[in-house]
Amino acid sequence: QVQLVESGGGVVQPGRSLRLSCAASGFTFSSNGMHWVRQAPGKGLEWVAVVWYDGSKKYYADSVKGRFTISRDNSKNTLYLQIDSLRAEDTAVYYCARHVGGGSKWENWGQGTLVTVSS
Amino acid sequence: QSVLTQPPSVSAAPGQTVTISCSGISSNIENDYISWYQQLPGTAPKLLIYDNNQRPSGIPDRFSGSKSGTSATLGISGLQTGDEADYYCGTWDTSLNAGSFGGGTKLTVL
């Protein structure tokens, strides 16, 4: 079955960087667009970024543009999110999600990894 | 980016039917699909409805979706206490190449 397992979260000081990973299994990773979605404590879901199935296109939410970089390694079935210049407002659970088809179908989600930005 | 608006909370008794609305302000919403997600406390979101009204396998037909113009609705019939959760609508805006989610609706089954 499809599995998405995020890792790399933790407590980080403001201004530092962090790289999150999402290990995928149970499907042909190179066939699907992959997204990052985050959820601040007690808040709703916020779409963060997407990378096309082949890595050719990447799009970001305005709130993270310029600081976040999404990437993927299809040979390792792994999705990444590089977060630079961390801010307190980046504190959230970060989920990776598999996009299926051409509509708004985030079919599978990981369990999430918590990033806490604090001095 | 698109903004989707949901009521903060809804409630109903077991066995009853509840609807949750999702309103968009971008005209592009008319041309894009809406999906719905259930998030039980402490867990990841789970896909309930995609492409406005399609259910993934394993989702009971108590859950239904519809869309008209720039608004969408999630319906849940035969409410059970296990349906208590946060529900989110979402969309992929194909013209902006951006995703967005509604603010979420907390369902309480009285």
Largest sheet of chain A: 7 strands, mixed
Overall geometry of chain B comes to globular
Provide the residue-averaged pLDDT of chain A.
96
Distance between the termini of chain A: 40 Å
Overall description:
- The complex is a heterodimer of chains A (119) and B (110).
- By secondary structure, chain A is mostly beta strands.
- Helices cover 0% and strands 51% of the residues of chain A.
- Chain A is built from no helices and 11 strands.
- Chain A is globular, with a radius of gyration of 13 Å.
- The model of chain A has no long low-confidence stretch (mean pLDDT 96).
- Chain B is mostly beta strands.
- Chain B is 0% helix and 48% strand.
- Chain B is built from no helices and 10 strands.
- Chain B has strands spanning 4-5, 9-12, 18-24, 34-39, 46-49, 63-68, 71-76, 85-93, 98-101, 105-109.
- In chain B, a hairpin with a 4-residue loop joins strand 8 (85-93) and strand 9.
- The termini of chain B are far apart.
- The interface between A and B is medium-sized, with 26 and 29 residues.
List the helices and strands and how they pair.
The complex is a heterodimer of chains A (about 120) and B (about 110).
Chain A: E1 3-7, E2 10-12, E3 18-25, E4 34-39, E5 45-51, E6 58-60, E7 68-73, E8 78-83, E9 92-99, E10 106-109, E11 113-117
Chain B: E1 4-5, E2 9-12, E3 18-24, E4 34-39, E5 46-49, E6 63-68, E7 71-76, E8 85-93, E9 98-101, E10 105-109
Parallel strand pairs in B: 2-10
Antiparallel strand pairs in B: 1-3, 3-7, 4-5, 4-8, 6-7, 8-9, 8-10
Brief write-up:
The complex is a heterodimer of chains A (119) and B (110). Helices cover 0% and strands 51% of the residues of chain A. Chain B is mostly beta strands.
